[in-house]
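Example 9 (inverse folding). The structure is encoded as follows.
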């Protein structure tokens, strides 16, 4: 097979032309045969013309690439490649090859069907399937291959034309994810609902409870009933959603696209999408070696910001999830929703229980999304010890529900959208 390939390489037009030039000039000069010398000179002139015709073209081309800067996993991407030729000599057999890193086809070849003439502008359109998983990819460079009219010499030039493409995780469209009550202020990035609190809107008279302020006592009702009675007011609370995403190094289990971290990131993206679709404000805390915070915001432009950040998230660091959440409780709006997204074996129930109790005491709604990492392939030796020491998933779910949390669980191979709509 190797000899056959080498034979094909030697029998090219260029090699045959060079052999004919060498033989004609060599034999003509050796035996003083002028026709052979003349033939060799003609072939040499032909080779020089072909070389000049095919080479030295880089500075005569200008390229520009246009495409949408964002897409989701496994979505097709349409790319427009614009080529401007400023040379004076027509070029034949021009091939333009683009480099599409996240696509099913890494190289995309485009053969120009007609000769390129002076001041010619060419638009090449192609579509490639983005088969790689989430991340920030660089598209480029562009390579140009052009040959002379006889197809003897072939030159290749590379152009530094680079563009960026954000590949978002495939976000499940969760329709029945009950984050909060429906509010009254729409299309402003937040919702408001009324409950008993300390606003100026009077609600009712009720019995005194330990902890009530003394200035709330309603003395006429107290005298009439013979026991302390207090005034109760409405409390307007914004429906903000705070997402905590645990990206501990040991939370990564599985290989390829089926990993526990990918499940958690997709769950976070689906939660943010569902919240913004209902006009809630959203903030994200990604807890890794370097924690990342996406501040509170609302609307679809804010969702793009959240997804841009999530394309770059990676599992790293040996932080403690409970400590990281505890440091940021002061940043959580009172009365909002807190979504904890963490792997089951990395959720230390004894340390997280006081945090959950504190958030519920502050009138926050707590939703825990637990990824059953025991169902994924282990990657580190330390994960085996974590599995042995961590409580089982049913015990964690039962305790969280007893505390007043809403719990969502998902394992490897399960449909995340279906699991997120089955809130326990």
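The amino acid assigned to each position is listed next.
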């Amino acid at each position: 097979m190797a000899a056959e390939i080498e034979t094909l390489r030697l029998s090219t037009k260029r090699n045959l032309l060079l052999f004919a030039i060498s033989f004609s000039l060599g034999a003509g000069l050796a035996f003083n045969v002028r026709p052979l010398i003349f033939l060799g000179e003609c072939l040499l002139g032909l080779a020089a013309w072909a070389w000049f015709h095919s080479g030295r073209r880089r500075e005569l081309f200008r390229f520009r690439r246009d495409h949408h800067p964002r897409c989701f996993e496994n979505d097709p991407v349409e790319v427009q490649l614009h080529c401007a030729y400023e040379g004076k000599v027509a070029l034949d057999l021009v091939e333009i090859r683009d480099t599409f890193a996240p696509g099913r086809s890494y190289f995309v070849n485009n053969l120009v069907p007609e000769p390129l003439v002076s001041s010619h502008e060419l638009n090449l359109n192609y579509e490639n399937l983005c088969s790689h998983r989430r991340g920030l990819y660089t598209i480029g460079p562009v390579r140009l291959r052009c040959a002379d009219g006889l197809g003897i010499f072939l030159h290749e030039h590379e152009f530094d034309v680079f563009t960026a493409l954000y590949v978002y995780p495939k976000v499940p469209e969760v329709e029945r994810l009950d984050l909060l009550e429906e509010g009254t202020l729409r299309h402003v990035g937040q919702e408001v609902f009324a409950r008993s609190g300390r606003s100026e809107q009077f609600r009712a008279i009720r019995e005194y409870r330990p902890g009530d302020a003394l200035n709330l006592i309603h003395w006429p009702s107290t005298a009439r009933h013979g026991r302390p009675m207090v005034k109760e007011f409405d409390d307007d609370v914004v429906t903000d959603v705070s997402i905590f995403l645990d990206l501990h190094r040991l939370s990564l289990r599985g290989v390829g696209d089926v990993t526990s971290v990918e499940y958690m990131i997709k769950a976070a993206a689906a939660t943010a999408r569902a919240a913004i679709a209902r006009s809630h404000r959203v903030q994200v805390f990604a807890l890794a070696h370097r924690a990342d915070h996406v501040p509170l915001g609302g609307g679809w432009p804010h969702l793009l910001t959240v997804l841009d950040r999530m394309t770059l998230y990676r599992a790293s660091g040996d932080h403690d999830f409970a400590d990281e959440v505890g440091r940021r409780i002061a940043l959580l709006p009172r009365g909002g929703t807190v979504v904890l997204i963490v792997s089951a074996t990395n959720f230390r129930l004894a340390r997280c229980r006081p945090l959950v109790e504190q958030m519920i005491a502050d009138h926050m709604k707590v939703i825990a999304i637990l990824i059953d990492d025991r169902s994924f392939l282990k990657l580190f030796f330390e994960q085996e010890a974590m599995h042995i020491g961590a409580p089982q998933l049913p015990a964690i779910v039962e305790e969280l529900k007893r505390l007043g949390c809403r719990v969502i669980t998902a394992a490897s191979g399960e449909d995340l959208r279906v699991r997120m709509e089955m809130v326990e």
